[in-house]
Amino acid sequence: QQWRRALELWPRDVETAGTPPLRKSDVFLAAMDALMHTDATSAAAVAKEAMHALADPESLIAADIYQRAGESLGLLGNPEAALALLGKAIAIYETQPASIELARALRRREIFEFALGQLPEATATAERAVEVSSSLNNLVEYQWMLSVLAMHNAEHGDTDLALERINEAVDIDLAGAAPMGLITSALVHTLILAMASVAADEVAAAGRPGLEAAAAWGIENYYVSTIRANLAEVLRQSGQIQRAVELIDPVTTELAPTVDSFPAHGERASLDLVRGRVDESIARFEILATLPNPLIWNRMDLAERFASAELWSGRPQRALDRLRAMLDESLGTDADRESATVLVQAARAAADVAASTPLGSSARRELLDELTALPPRASADPFAPHPAYGNREALAATWKTELARVAGEPALERWVSAAQAWDRLTRPHDAAYSRWRAATEARRANQGVAADRLLRRATADAREHVPLLQAIRDSSPR
After folding, report:
1. Smallest Cα–Cα separation from 387: which of 119, 188, 158?
2. 260: nearest Cα among 308, 307, 292
3. Which end of the chain has fewer CB atoms within 10 angstroms, the N or the C?
4. In the chain, how long is the greatest CA-to-CA distance?
5. pLDDT tens, 282-330?
6. pLDDT tens-digit profile of 198-242?
7. Strand partners, 30
8. Cis bond leading into 250, ω under 30°?
9. Could you give the CA distance from residue 114 to residue 337 in angstroms, rounded to a whole number?
10. pTM of the predicted model, to two decimals?
C-alpha cells in the first residue's frame, strides 16, 4: 500500500524525486516485489504502468521491470506471455556481467517453462541459474536453484544425483537470514521423496524445516502451501487422515482458495472427500477449477482429484469427460510422464459408466479402444518402471484391472495383485479399493468365503475413508 501510494503521489513526467533522491523505476520494482505473491492482479497492473513509463526499453532497469511483469502475467495463468517478457529481460542481462537480477530472471523463467511441461528447456535454465548464482557466490539464489535442479534430476530419472543436490541445498546455512531458499529446498525434498513413494514419516521429516522457517517468518505463500499439501497428501495416502487434517484444516477454514493457497485447498477438498463430506469437497474443487493455474502438472492433479470426488458422488460421466479433456491437453507434452494416475482414474470412470448405463458389448468395445489408444499418445510409456516414480507398478496393475472391468471380463486375480502392489507402498485405501473390487468378482464367481475374507481386509484398510467404507458395507451381505 505504501509503495502504491508513493506512485500515486509521484510528480508527473519526473523520474527522480524526493530527498534523498529516489527513481520512480525503483518504486515500480519495489511495488511489484511487494505485491507479487499477495496480489498478482495488482502486480500486473503496476507492471503495465511501469513498462509504459520506460524511457529506454533496452536498459537494465527495463529488464528488471520485464522480468517482474513476466512473473505477474504467469501467475495470472499466461505462462507464454511470461516467457516472452522473461526472454527479453534475460537477453538484456546476458549482454552484461553476471548479476543477481540475471539469476532471478532465470529462476522465474524456469518456473514457467516447467509450467508448460517444457522439461528440457526448464532443466537447462535451472543449470544456468545454478552456474550464475555460484559465480556470484550468492548462497540464497544458489540454494534455491540447486533445489530446483535437483527436482529436474529426479524427473529425468537420476534420483541419486537429485538427492545429492537436495541434501547439499538443505545443508547450506544462511543463519536464518533468507527463509525462501530453505522453504524451496524443503518443498523439493518432499516432492522427490513423495515421487519415490518413500514412507510418509520420511517425507514429513523432509518438509519440517521449511514449515518451521515459514512459521518463524510468518510466511504463508504458494511454496509453503505446497509443502503442507505434499505432506498431507502422503499422510492421507498412508491412511493417516487425522495427521493430514491437522496440517491442512487450520489454513483452509474458509471456502476462499487463491492462487497462492491453491495446493492446500486442493488437499482440503481431498480430505473432505475421504471424510464423507462429498458435497463440500465438490464445492471446493469447483472454485479451484476457476482459478488461473499456469502449471500443467497442477491442472492434471486437480482433474484427477476432482474426478475422484465426482466418481464417489455417482457422476462417472462427468468425471470421464473431465479426464478426457485433461489427457487431450497433457498427452504428448513432457508432463505426460505423470499421466499414469489420470489414465487410471479415466479407466475407472469409464468402467463405472459402463456398469451404470449399462452399455452393450459394442459400446464397451468402443470405450475400451479409446482408453487403450491413450498411453501410446504419450511421449514415453506412463506405466513403464521409472527410477524416480515408486508407484508405477501399482498404477500399471490397477490400469489393467480397470480396463478388464470396462470390457466386462473377470479380473479377480488381477485385483488381488493390484492390492498387493499397493500394500508394498503402504497405501491402505488404494489396497482396500482393489480388494473391494476383488470381492465383487469373487461373489460373482460364487466364491463367498473368498469374498468375505477380502471384504474383511478391505474394511480394515479403508478406515477413515468414509465413501469407500460405505461401498464395502453395501457389498457385504452381512
Report:
1. 158
2. 292
3. C
4. 89
5. 999 999 999 988 889 999 999 999 999 999 999 999 999 999 999 999 9
6. 999 999 999 999 999 999 999 988 899 999 999 999 999 999 999
7. none
8. no
9. 13
10. 0.88
- Rounded CA-CA distance 220/320 in Å is 35
Label residue 180 by pLDDT band (50, 70, 90): confident
The type of residue at 13 is D
Output the CA angle 406-411-415, nearest 5 degrees. 105
- Contact between residue 133 and residue 126 where contact means Cβ atoms under 8 Å apart: no
Spatial separation of the C-alpha atoms in residues 468 and 37, rounded to whole Å: 38
Which helix (H) or strand (E) element contains residue 263? Answer: helix 262-274
Average pLDDT estimate for 471-475: 92
Dist. CA 407–CA 365, nearest whole Å: 7
Say what the pLDDT of residue 75 is: 84
Grid cell locating 185 = 529446498
> Using an 8 Å Cβ cutoff, are 93 and 100 in contact?
no
> Which residue's C-alpha cell is 537420476?
158
DSSP single-letter state for residue 389: B
- Is the pLDDT reported for residue 375 higher than 90? yes
Give the span between the Cα atoms of 469 and 475, in whole angstroms.
10
Assign residue 409 a region (left: φ > 0; alpha: ψ between -120 and 50; beta: otherwise). Answer: beta
Cβ-Cβ contacts under 8 Å for 141 (sequence gap 6 or more): 100, 103, 104, 107, 129, 132, 133, 181
pLDDT given at position 334: 84
* Rounded-to-integer distance, Cα 302 and Cα 337, Å: 16
Query: Any residues with CB less than 8 A from the CB of 82 and at least 6 apart, and which?
Result: 70, 71, 73, 74, 108, 112, 294
pLDDT tens by residue, 323-351: 999 999 999 988 888 899 999 999 999 99
Contact between 191 and 231 under an 8 Å Cβ cutoff? The reply is no
